[in-house]
Amino acid sequence: MLKNIDPALNADVLHALKSMGHGDTLVISDTNFPSDAIARKTTLGTLLRIDNVSAARAVEAVLSVLPLDTPLQPSAGRMEVMGAPDEVLPVQQEVQAVIDRAEGKSAPMYGIERFKFYEEAKKAYCVITTGETRFYGCFLFTKGVIPPKT
Q1: Is position 2 within any domain?
Q2: Interior/surface letters 27-66, b for 16+ CB within 10 angstroms, e for the rest
Q3: List 24, 100, 110, 118, catalytic entry
Q4: Which residues pair with 126 in a beta bridge?
Q5: Is residue 136 among the annotated active site residues?
Q6: Is there a domain that residue 26 lies in?
Q7: Which InterPro entries does this UniProt record tie to the protein (predicted)?
Q8: Annotated catalytic residue 110
């Protein structure tokens, strides 16, 4: 156990988050996402796991240490519901609330069409799969920077 580190973050996830650079992306996915197949095509090349928690809980843990690139661009995306791209499901609403708390302001997610999401996920630094069983619990985040103390 470490001080001030969310216990949901295991060593492999922490190493990947630390290794990512500004502008790198990561996927946090539900249990239905083809996580292993997609993860093999990412920079890291292997699947990471935060098991037995919801997508929102996993996002909360990740955003406790990962800065988002929100000042420069929208940096949190959600997989769109097929046939209803503007619909925001409860799992996505929960993650949006986590993002807003982490950022201390409203930082709306942008929608990504399902098959485009798969293609963007292959370009990510890594994929973290969760225990989320609800559909469309898949998210893409862009890492930002931590400014120097002045």
Answers
A1: no
A2: bbbbeebebeebbeebebeebbebeeebbbbbbbbbbeeb
A3: 118
A4: 26
A5: no
A6: no
A7: RbsD-like_sf, RbsD/FucU_mutarotase, RbsD_FucU
A8: no
Domain residue limits at 93: 33-142
Residue 125 is a catalytic residue: no
Catalytic residue among 30, 69, 125, 136: 69
DSSP letter at 84? B
Looking up residue 64, the CATH number of its domain turns out to be 3.40.1650.10
**pLDDT truncated to tens, each residue of the chain (150 aa)?**
789 999 999 999 999 999 999 999 999 999 999 999 999 999 999 999 999 999 999 999 999 999 999 776 789 999 999 999 999 999 999 999 999 999 999 999 999 999 999 999 999 999 999 999 999 999 999 999 998 998
Q: Which of 6, 12, 15, 22 is catalytic?
A: 22
Residue 24 inside a domain? The answer is no
